[in-house]
Amino acid sequence: VSGILDQEVTPLYRYAAFATFNGCDALDFAGGATTDSYDSSNLAAGVQAWGGSVGTNGNLTEAGNPTTINGSLSTPRTGVGACTAGNVTAWTQNGNAHLNGGIIELPQAVAYPAVPAPNPLPPTTAYNGNNQTLLDGASAGNITVNANKTLTLGASGVTSRVTVNSLTLGGNGIVQILGTVILNVAGQGQTSPIDLTGGGVTNAALDPSTLQVRYGGTGNVKLVGVSASAMVLYAPSATASISGGSDFYGAVIANKVAGTGGAAIHYDRKLQKKFMSAAN
Question: Residues 81, 90: contact at Cβ < 8 Å?
Answer without folding.
Answer: no
